[in-house]
Write a structure and sequence with these properties.
The chain is 44% helix and 14% strand. It is of the alpha/beta class. Helix 17 (434-451) runs parallel beside helix 20. The longest helix has 19 residues, at 350-368.
């Protein structure tokens, strides 16, 4: 890693001194919970990520052969149903490591949006589709709702395999999903090491089973990971992961808490994975680091002095760096921002990059004096959402919540609250369609360039399992902009087996309840929030906001 810190170079030297004096690296490898807290709650049983790649190496051939047998049996597609740590690494593997000649087309379902679910279903040949139900706890509502929907759709098919033969589970031993999968006749149950948290699970069965299904080379990925892990065991002067993690934390404490991750478009899914790891691990106890994605050369002129830029730069076998990304890093340096340049040799190094970021994030947790392996504020939104669902089940309608009709004036008045050091989090409970992405990107750029603040964009409820912890538990320097819509009842989808009136619960109702629940959790935490109602035509409403 190449650090280009300018006047902040002493911060790196101070970070190295602290790492050496406190013996942070050897203590982490010794599974010493006192690196982060006096008690070992959710630490002693969360450090399995340190050596999971070594333990999984012995299962690489098994997973590869299993996936090959599915292809020979006639499966052509696989859908990973999961949220957060259960879906983000598989999404990376699907886009960067898949091989259609060896494996299945791997698709991701990590939403409760009915339009998005319907569009996914249109792509599927159900008779040739395997569904992977992935949840550590076994009780993730989005994941189980997706399972119930596609289980019912398969039951409607005549002939072919029994529905259970289309499903496998990845979960912790003893979770409720284990019992459900046995009773429902799942093809296979993968029980993961329970000593690994969801966002640290990329190199466990949660990541490797989807990788094998996509036709990726599991053995090679784990072998490359080992070389990165060995580097993270070295003394501080030679340990980039530890130095970067401590620097990241110390710069955040000094006010540069907006970690601006610069990536080429082809690596956008890697950015999403990093975003979850950083936000959910470090955004708590009133502190945190805000990961900022999607920015490029045109944005640098609007960066404030709260930035720390990390450029992930593809490099050729001869070591030469991608010219466009190297130039972007240079531009950030010339603008006076601290920059770390991280070479990326290619998909074969993905496992190593996952490990690097995991180790660095754990070190940053020490620097910030936060617990990197829990997520105390995620549950508050879930509890509130369940309250709204219960209200729906009692009377058949959801409470309205504190929404405002979308208008440029309402948005402008809210943005007038922004101050130096703030950021805007756009939380869009919309289908993640290309048109919506384009509109939200235009909104991001417009606000960021007018106010000189970072703007992040997340689709709900997906972001609740990544940046949601930061929004509620991190520093109170975020403006939270919820965008909600009215789902057309004629296109909404039922959740089979749910309760709630004669028509039961629908995905549109659940998504709305999740938005209401997170809004209540944000308000209860004293966070700045505006919920804009986009109505039944969100595209037109977004156009009005942009005007």
């Amino acid at each position: 890693m190449n650090f280009r810190l300018g006047s902040l170079e002493p911060t790196l030297a101070e970070a190295e001194v602290h790492l050496q004096r406190e013996r942070i690296v050897p203590r982490i490898w010794a599974w010493d919970h006192t690196v982060w807290a006096d008690n070992d709650v959710e630490i002693a049983d969360r450090l399995g990520w340190l050596d999971i790649h070594r333990r999984m190496a012995g299962r690489a051939a098994e997973l590869t052969e299993w996936a090959r047998a599915l292809v020979e049996e006639g499966f052509r597609q696989a859908v990973l149903i999961g949220m957060g740590g259960s879906s983000l690494a598989p999404e990376v593997f699907s886009g960067l490591c898949g091989c259609s000649e060896r494996g299945l087309e791997l698709l991701i379902l990590d939403t409760t949006d009915p339009e998005q679910i319907a569009l996914l279903e249109e792509r599927l040949d159900l008779a040739a589709t395997l569904f992977v139900v992935a949840t550590k706890s076994g009780g993730t509502v989005e994941t189980l709702s997706g399972y119930q929907y596609f289980r019912a759709r398969l039951a409607e098919q005549e002939g072919g395999r029994p529905p259970g033969e289309h499903f496998v589970a990845i979960t912790d031993p003893g979770s409720s999903l284990v019992n459900l999968a046995r009773e429902a006749g799942f093809r296979r149950i993968f029980e993961n090491d329970p000593n690994i948290g969801g966002r640290y699970s990329a190199l466990s069965l949660f990541g490797l089973v989807p990788l094998a299904l996509a036709g990726g080379d599991v053995g090679s990925l784990l072998a490359q990971t080992e070389s990165f892990a060995q580097l993270a065991e070295r003394p501080v002067a030679d340990n980039d992961a530890a130095r970067f993690g401590m620097l990241m934390g110390r710069l955040a404490l000094a006010g540069r808490d907006k970690l601006t991750i610069l990536l080429p478009p082809a690596l956008a899914s890697v950015g999403d994975w990093i975003e979850q790891l950083i936000a959910e691990s470090l955004g708590k106890s009133g502190r945190g680091i805000v990961p900022v994605l999607g920015e490029g050369a045109d944005d640098v002129a609007y960066f404030g002095n709260d930035r720390f830029c990390v450029a992930v730069v593809p490099c050729a076998p001869d070591g030469s760096l991608d010219a466009a990304m190297a130039a972007l890093a240079d531009r950030c340096v010339e603008a006076g921002h601290p920059v770390a340049v991280m070479p990326f040799a290619g998909p074969e190094d993905l496992g190593g990059h996952f490990f690097f970021w995991e180790f660095a994030t754990a070190v940053a947790g020490h620097a910030l004096d936060v617990h990197p392996f829990d997520q105390p504020d995620v549950e508050s939104a879930k509890v509130a959402a369940r309250t709204f669902v219960a209200a729906y089940e009692r009377c058949g309608v959801l409470p309205e919540g504190q929404t405002v009709e979308a208008s440029p004036r309402a948005l402008a008045d809210f943005l007038a609250l922004a101050a130096q050091g703030d950021y805007l989090a756009i939380q869009a409970y919309l289908p993640a369609s290309p048109d919506h992405r384009q509109s939200l990107e235009a909104l991001r750029r417009s606000v960021a360039h007018r106010l000189d603040i970072p703007v992040t964009v997340g689709f709900g409820p997906r972001f609740l399992h990544s940046t949601g912890q930061l929004h509620k538990g991190g520093a109170a320097n975020g403006l939270n902009l919820q965008l909600v819509r009215r789902v057309d009842p004629t296109t909404d989808l039922p959740i089979p087996g749910s309760s709630g009136g004669s028509d039961g619960m629908t995905f549109g109702t659940l998504q709305r309840a999740q938005a209401l629940g997170d809004g209540e959790a944000l308000r209860n935490g004293g966070r700045r929030l505006l919920t804009l109602e986009l109505g039944s035509d969100p595209a037109a409403a977004l156009a009005r906001l942009l005007s």
